[in-house]
Amino acid sequence: MSLQMVTVGHNIALIQPGFSLMNFDGQVFFFGQKGWPKRSCPTGVFHFDIKQNHLKLKPAIFSKDSCYLPPLRYPATCLYKGSLESEKHQYIIHGGKTPNNELSDKIYIMSVACKNNKKVTFRCTEKDLVGDVPEARYGHSIDVVYSRGKSMGVLFGGRSYMPSTQRTTEKWNSVADCLPHVFLVDFEFGCATSYILPELQDGLSFHVSIARNDTIYILGGHSLANNIRPANLYRIRVDLPLGSPAVNCTVLPGGISVSSAILTQTNNDEFVIVGGYQLENQKRMVCNIVSLGNNTIEISEMETPDWTPDIKHSKIWFGSSMGNGTVFLGIPGDNKQAMSEAFYFYMLKCSEDDVSEEQKIFTSSQTSTEDPGDSTPFEDSEEFCFSAEATSFDGDDEFDTYNEDDEDDESVTGYWITCCPTCDVDINTWVPFYSTELNKPAMIYCSHGDGHWVHAQCMDLAERTLIHLSKGSNKYYCNEHVQIARALQTPKRSLPLQKPPMKSLHKKGSGKVLTPAKKSFLRRGIGVFIHFPYLQLENLIEFSCVANVTVECIYRRDCLNERFGRDPFHPISEFFH
């Protein structure tokens, strides 16, 4: 057994306890990143490329007809084939935690849509279940058994949140063991059936499961109700005749007390158990070999790796199997040093032998860890790992390297952030406000500076406005930065106002022509006093300009009688004869 340290590029912040590794045709892919996916890799799935003990995460591509696959921590995954002879590999993903600590009850089927020049394009579909649908959970196991030419998924164990009737504000995130029911899932028709077996009395989580043909072995695990790690060893056999399936369970001796262990396969009938915990505050440093035969299982200790002092003194560890007898391990960094990394990673090679491609055994296991800042038991912040088939680490430099420059800290991402000083969105008290919301508050991106997300409800946005902004490409600024954005904008150039002329552009003539005698009479400067009802204003203006006289408007009837000695309503044209 050899232990080597692995360096990680700039995207080291994406790796966190709870990730999973999946193998497709000899290439390993990383799933379960920290936080929600960003623009650089919206799928959240990365090619896990290790060359010369240096790890690079390269974004993976999904087909256009794929459904959205959220990043899930501690899910149950397994390799699925339609039959033992089938060459098409698919992965089943069930349950797990989202970055908002919500539990998923969905089943996703992930397969390869196409592969060109070592670039893999995935297709992900969501499978709807009917019947006895398993509740949302994490820390459980899912395996595939094959019997009489048929295949069936077997789901067991895990933890879930307490029932809604028992959840309080103080214990909102409290979890409990799921009931020890065994679920058979038909992936072809989407039917699920639960079975109660008398041998399974207590709920288990973070156990090790190994599937071989029609048999599943359950080892170890942690019971949260009793806070013990019993040395369990169960054998569950599933028979798939033409009628109803037959499920039976047998308790076997020779089990081991371990939880959150990492399982890797060294050859067709041999597995290695690495890591895990044997007590609440004590890691399990011993490794075991598991050998399978026809209806037999044998567990024995093996040579202990030469653990480094950092691994020996670390309180927690986590990781996942890379196949081919290789395990990827992580431990928290030294928080006492200012420039310390968040985690240090190692690659443990348990065997140098290659595994045949015609494998008939598929394995899965759950591992657990604790956040370095928490003081809760190890099992309260769990991590899942998967043991895949034989893996080669021949990467492809033509993959697009992931750029972490636009990655945000998880504390300021997600839906349940404090987006502004007046934010009142709380995960425990929030209720949908817009018709488009279901179980998460609507958010909108503010383009100020480096950008940040805010709740649409906190910005007092109308639903029509929110839908309009989501469809358009215009930049949005939150209430806190909108004034700054307006001040930085260059004012638009405005055309000078055109003042309308004082005089009418289209003059309406009076229709009368002044004779030379009348013009001569008017040039003498005789003042004329007129009354408005018998002379239009346009004629008055024209008359004053032509005659070069001063026109005085008289409104009083008595004044006009004194000056002219006649009725003011008499036609004014008589004054000029």
UniProtKB/TrEMBL annotation:
Keywords: Chromatin regulator, DNA recombination, Metal-binding, Nucleus, Zinc, Zinc-finger
Renumbered residue ranges of the record's region Disordered: 359-380
BP GO terms, sorted: chromatin organization; V(D)J recombination
Biased composition (Polar residues): 361-370
Residues involved in Zn(2+) 2 binding: C446, H452, C478, H481
Biased composition (Acidic residues): 371-380
Pfam families: RAG2 (PF03089), RAG2_PHD (PF13341)
One term of GO molecular function: sequence-specific DNA binding
Chief localisation class: nucleus
Cellular compartments annotated: Nucleus
Gene3D superfamilies: Kelch-type beta propeller, Rag2 PHD finger
Residues that hold Zn(2+) 1 according to the record: C419, C423, H455, C458
Gene Ontology cellular-component annotations: DNA recombinase complex; nucleoplasm
Subunit structure: Component of the RAG complex composed of core components RAG1 and RAG2, and associated component HMGB1 or HMGB2.
Annotated family: Belongs to the RAG2 family.
UniProt-recorded name of the protein: V(D)J recombination-activating protein 2
Organism from which the protein derives: Neotoma lepida
